[in-house]
Structures are given as structure tokens and as C-alpha cells.
Amino acid sequence: MPDNKLNSDTRERILDVAERQFMAHGYEATSMRMITSMAEVNLAAVNYHFGSKEGLLRDVFRRRLTWLNRERLAALDALEQQANGAPLKPSQVLEAFFGTLLRIGEDESLGGMTFLRLLGRTLTDPSEFIRTFFAKEYAVVIERYKLALFRAVPDVPKAEIVWRLHFMLGAMSYAIAGTDILQVITGLEIGDISGKEEDGKSEARRLSERLMPFLLGGLRAALPNPADSYNQQQVPLAKTARNTSLEKKR
């Protein structure tokens, strides 16, 4: 077997093991000894391929995010080409961005739910080095989708759209991180929470069906009334002229 093929196989085995261990135990609690033992390699092999534990975590994410970013941009390109210059619907933008991510959960070759949970748990409390890494990796994609949202919901101020994108990213991260906290809050078994009835649907598909309408509802929510102070009565949930125009764009 050529050395480059052997090196490639070793590298992928280390990444697979690290992905599972980082998801199960978290970055800090996962030791290099745990990874090398399960991957059946020595520490020198990890250092050769990744340089350090930080480098290993970055490459765990990079091999999945490279595909994800490419697919997100391709999906947006296709939608904008079909629209022929017209603004996209908000639901189209969200499906291309968040739906593409959720589809990873149905494909084990892309990391499946293991990677989704790792991504969600890391994003809910990222260390400084991984925060910087994500900002760089996502920069082009986030900018493209932000501009698409500006066009899709022109009645919403740009600053408000940015806030809502921030909220949606947080909701997505929390959702894909797993059902642990939901189980603690409700006292239900995970099977009861996730609805694991014999419907033939994957966990990722059921999550998508629950989460995507929630995200779209948040994006299309009524605008706050700037005349109201912080402690005044909340804006009613009834339809207003402003959010009625948003609903028509769904």
C-alpha cells in the first residue's frame, strides 16, 4: 500500500474517532490518550497530521464545513438563478441555509447526527480559538445569506434581520446539540420527546419538521414598536400591517 494512502486512511480514522469523542465528552474532557487509543495510533501520528489538539478539532470541523459551505452557496446560487433577479421568499433562504445543515444528520458519510450534535454543542459555548475559526469559515456564506435575507424581507430593518439571524443561529445550535436539557426540563424519556414512533423518519427529518417552521415564524414576527419603552406592554401578537406584508412573502 502506498504511503500516501496509508497516511490518508490514518488521518481519516483519527478524525472519525476525534469527532465521536469530542461530541460525547466535550473538547476539554477529551484527552489525546483517549483518541490515540481508540484510533489505534500513537501520539506522534496525531501530531504529524494535525500538529496539536486544537489543530485536530479544527480539522474535524473543516472536513464537514467545507462540504456544508459549498452546498449552501450552490443552493443559494440555484435559487437566485431560478428567481431571475427577483427576491427569494424567506422560506427559500432558510431552507437553503438551515435545511442543508439538517440534511447532514441523515447522511453518515457527512458525519450524521454525531457531527450535528458536536457542532451544536460547540457553538453554544465555543472557546476563543474555535470562535475565531468559525468566523473565518462562515464569513462568505453568512454574508451571502444576509444579503439574500435583506432582499427577501425588505420591510424589516437590516439591523433587525441581523438580530433575527443571530436568534435563529442560536436556536439551531441549541436544537442540534441534543435533547439532554429538554429531557431534564420535561422529565420525559428521549423517545417521548423526539417522537420516535414508527413513522420511518430519521431523527434529523423530525427535527427539521419541528425547527424550520419555528425559525420561519421568528423571521416573520411582528416588528417591535419603537415608541414603546422597555417596560411598556409587549407588542400584540395579532397581525399588523407590517407583519401581514411579511406573511405574503412566505
Describe the overall structure:
The protein is mostly helical and 250 residues long. The chain contains twelve helices and no strands.
Query: Which segments are poorly predicted (pLDDT under 50) over 5 or more consecutive residues?
Result: 229-242
Alpha plus pi helix count: 12
Gross morphology is globular
Let me know the average pLDDT. Answer: 85
Please write out the topology.
Elements: H1 3-25, H2 32-39, H3 43-50, H4 53-83, H5 90-103, H6 112-124, H7 128-152, H8 158-176, H9 180-186, H10 190-194, H11 203-219, H12 241-247
Helix pairs in contact: 1-2, 1-4, 1-6, 3-4, 4-5, 4-7, 5-11, 6-8, 8-11
What features would you highlight for this structure?
globular, 12 helices, 250 residues
Brief digest:
This protein has 250 residues and is mainly α. Helix content is 71%, strand content 0%.
